[in-house]
Amino acid sequence: MPKPVIRPPHPPRDTLTPERDITHAHFRPGDHIVVFKGVADGRLWGDAMSVVTPSWHTPTDEDGWRLRNPRGGEQTYTTGHPRYMVHLARRCPDCLIYQRALEDYLLPRFAGTKGTVDLGWYRVSPTNQITHVNDTVAR
Predict the structure, then answer these.
(1) Among 99, 76, 82, which residue's Cα sits nearest to residue 28?
(2) If we measure between CA atoms, which residue out of 104, 124, 128 comes closest to residue 12?
(3) Which one of 7, 71, 123, 128 has the largest count of C-beta atoms within 10 Å of its C-beta?
(4) What is the pTM of this model?
(5) Banded model confidence at residue 137, pLDDT cuts 50, 70, 90
(6) What are the backbone angles phi and psi of residue 123, rounded to the nearest 5°?
């Protein structure tokens, strides 16, 4: 049975992702990535997907990537901005630095929390675009 997802009433602001400088060319079709959405039992937690093809990311008006969720469901395919994504299979320095910064920022705040904490930083738009809360507010 899946653990319940907790939504904290006042999640910490994401000050890292909006400032992340990662180019579209950093990812390639076939890459396995994760979009970190929160913390689960003392570890970063998110949606694992694979990169399919370039796709315009409408919320940021920039080059994005079409992503495939292997679990399928209503949103098998979504489009995301490269700054949301972290390599899973490839251990590249840029992604490792960002992941470590997220761990340093989030894990102490939720130490000892049981279950999955969704910080509410990401939503999927009606046009299947992953949007970060800062990108939603900015546009």
Answers:
(1) 82
(2) 104
(3) 128
(4) 0.91
(5) low
(6) -140, 160
Q: Which long-range contacts (CB under 8 A, 24 or more apart) does 131-135 make?
A: 131/59, 132/14, 132/17, 132/18, 132/81, 132/83, 132/84, 133/14, 134/14, 134/17, 134/18, 135/18, 135/59, 135/60, 135/81
Q: Which of 126, 20, 130, 123 is nearest to 79 (CA)?
A: 130
Section 8-16 average pLDDT: 89
Q: Which residues of 62-96 are buried (b: 16+ CB within 10 A; e: fewer)?
A: eebbbbeeeeeeeeeebbbbbbbbbbeeeeeeebe
DSSP 90-138: S--HHHHHHHHHHHHHHGGGGTT--SEEE---EEE-TTSBEEEHHHHHH
What length does the chain have? 139
